[in-house]
Amino acid sequence: MKKVRKAIIPAAGLGTRFLPATKAMPKEMLPIVDRPTIEYIVEEAVRSGIEDIIIVTGKGKRAIEDHFDYSLELEENLLQKEKYDLLEKIKESAKVDIHYIRQKEPRGLGHAVWCARKFIGDEPFAVLLGDDIICSDEAPGLQQLINEYNEVQSSVIAVKKVPSSETHRYGVIDYTKKEGKRYLVKDFVEKPAQGTAPSDMAIIGRYILTPQIFKFLDEQKVGAGGEIQLTDAIQALNKKQSVYSYEVDGDRYDVGEKLGFIETTLEMALDRKDLQEPLTKYLIQLADKLKEQNQNLNI
């Protein structure tokens, strides 16, 4: 049985939801408090036992490579100033062995995964999307999926329950069988029209896929939005071999849109001992101020 050793992190998107901030800065480098978003994703992969990571980048993404590289001048400066805590933090991000490949044109998530096919070879692999951060007191979200893969020996897609009013924003599963938190998937429905979703279990950005997925990605079939969709390839794979979903434990943060990014930043900051007390005081003051200003609003 081949173990899951490799992971793909697609990071070639244009980040249009965060313009103009992302005109010159990769969306994946936007900080949540004082750590770029992609660092949380890489950390989850490493904590889950992943040995090799390939990040699929695009034009203007060089800052990602620089972040996970050594910065000798900065390290020497911090050493001379005896800022050892900061020195350790920036060294930590350079300890991970990361590979890079460029997606030369924005042709969708499926195409980004396909670009890494030679790196993956004939092995099961993980895909982690940067729009979702999963924080769990137990095993990391990806580790939970790997555990499931080891049991079922088939592709496993992470899902979380969402309000029925929000199912139109996600890919949603239609399943035939449920055992605990494991679902045997019948169909994957991409962004169903309001009120038509087959379930309230939405796909989130963690996948364990068998290498057979590349057979379908090789076909380069164009789907929704004129792009090559990973969901379409998974749907095709599901007709040949069973694909499962698993409801991961932990809090899932959506940092792919502005409000979710702000909410995530606040919650992460409130978990920090150095920020918790002053931020809590500020939020209480802000709440009182907003209450006075919006007495006539239904909030």
Detailed description of the structure:
This protein has 299 residues and is an alpha/beta fold. It is 34% helix and 23% strand. A nine-stranded mixed β-sheet has the order 5-4-1-6-11-8-12-10-9. The protein is globular.
Looking at this protein, list some descriptive labels.
299 residues, alpha/beta, 9-stranded mixed β-sheet, 34% helix, globular
Coarse structural class: alpha/beta
Indicate the low-confidence ranges by residue numbers.
none
- In N-to-C order, the SSE pattern is EEEHEHHHEHHEEHEEEEHHEEHH
Oligomeric state of shown chains: single chain
> Any idea what the shape is?
globular
Task: Compute the number of strand runs.
Answer: 13
Beta strand %: 15-25%
Main pleated-sheet profile = 9 strands, mixed
Give the averaged pLDDT, no decimals: 88
Q: Largest beta sheet: what is the strand line-up?
A: 5-4-1-6-11-8-12-10-9
- Put simply, the count of helices is 11
- N- to C-terminal distance: 54 Å
Helix content: 25-40%
Radius of gyration: 20 Å
